[in-house]
Fold this sequence. Notes:
The protein is α+β, with helices and mostly antiparallel strands. It has helices at 2-11, 16-26, 31-43, 49-74, 86-109, 114-123, 128-161, 165-190, 209-212, 214-227, 250-255, 280-294, 319-328, 381-387, 395-401, 439-451, 467-471, 498-521, 529-543; strands spanning 268-273, 300-304, 314-316, 333-339, 345-352, 361-369, 372-374, 415-417, 429-432, 457-464, 477-482.
Amino acid sequence: MADWLQSTLISLVDTPALQAAFAGFCTFILEDPTTVTCGILVAEGRMAFMTALVGLTVGIALGDLGLYAIGRAVGPNTVAWGWVTQDRLDRVRHWFDRNVILAVFLSRFIPGTRLPTYVGAGIFQASVWRFLGAAVTASLLWTFLLLTAVVKLGEAVLPQLGRFKWPVAIALIVAIILMQRRTSKRLLADNAPSEAVEPVASLFEFWPPFVFYIPVGFYYAWLALRYRSFTLPTAVNPSIYSGGLIGESKSQILSLVPKEQRKWVATHTPFMRPSADTPLETVLQQAERAMEEAGIAFPVVAKPDTGQRGAGVQRIPNAEELRRYLREFPANTPMVLQALVDLPHEAGVLYYRNPRESRGHIMSVTLKEFPFVIGDGVHTLQELILADPRAVLIKDVYLRRHTAQLDRVLAEGERFRLVFAGNHAQGAVFRDGRDCITPELEARIHEIASSIPEFYFGRFDIRFESLDAFVRGEGLNIVEINGAGAEATHIWDARATLSNAYKTLFRQFRILFEIGAENRRRGHRALGPVRLLRDCYRYRQASRAYPLTH
């Protein structure tokens, strides 16, 4: 990073405002190494001291405020999630109110304490103005001291190093990064939960997406600058619209699987829901005719042809339920009718291959579980959901889905499945299944993926009978293939750590940009930014009309 950061900052030498903005942006990625790099540039006369000080201070202060905002967003749920009692929440909140300035200053100068302190200040609702004042003052003081020290040292030492000055500087920056990582690992090890305790959810599993993905957004922006394209991931799979990032057709992707590999794909058929003035009985007859021609019988799975995060997916047992689904489904909108693969297990397998490579790789395997509650002959479904330690964390999803049955008392021993769709946002439980990656499984997935024209990145959602068969690459039933919009979903395992989750996502997006860049070199074009934003807006509007997911 230091090499690229140096050359970029130097290229902006005639525009101090851009230099300051770029330095501030880089503090979101690596704070102290960025400060050291700026100090060396100041010592060489390639950057003004005040430009560096202002840019670094503003960037660091904004990063601190972002950590506080994450805590603030999570805070109201900590009691409901069982992380802390209301009494302890109140007591720690009072402590933060009295000591927030001291806590902020100490954490700024003690390695490894800033993240928990600043997020904690948000969780426990310390005064935002007192926090902000302390954070800005502390970051200004810290930046001034570190920057001044580097500048003075650089002015004294750099002239003596001659042509070795930048190799030595880069070695120093790398050493700082390694020292910080070592300190963080020690702190995490000291505070790691006992392996004997099975967590209900990870620390971040149910954070609001707009909060959790903030660091990912900054990393994406950095990659976009580095590769000179904000939309480069849309060139990852040239045979799929937008590379499968947004607006792609599920049925079109499945249709790309050649005939000799179709045995691995669940039988399905696309169906266009006619206009609103078409009689419902006529629509039903057309849908049943499409099913018959494809050799599909009830029960089936119905879902929008363009959809994400399990939106609109339902199990349809008979014609009456299909009539209801068609009535609720928006007119003039394509859907997919798929034969139900009634197997007990499901996994998501994330695959990638650089076009220069002859062999692909499995990056992630996620084993999916479908939660249920068990009746006792006394309590209602709603009471059972609220009493379940995990179900209560996303109670709104389950209660909205099962509104008609909430007051029903489940018979003793009756198992009530809370979700059908294998999607985390819809309530499925995800487990890290990377230990299932075997040469046999990787070979099978590569065999299928490489048969799809110009397909280099995506996730296969697979139903299977047993884990033994799955790891051998046998008995696979692919129900969906996602493209560039797919995620390494093993990060939603309850035992996952925040640092490993971000490390995984950063690697995933780095791979996306690398493949996109190679495809761009081969002559394929990415979507334009305006078109991508328009597609995102159109999908958001359309998805609001989809039926409720079951």
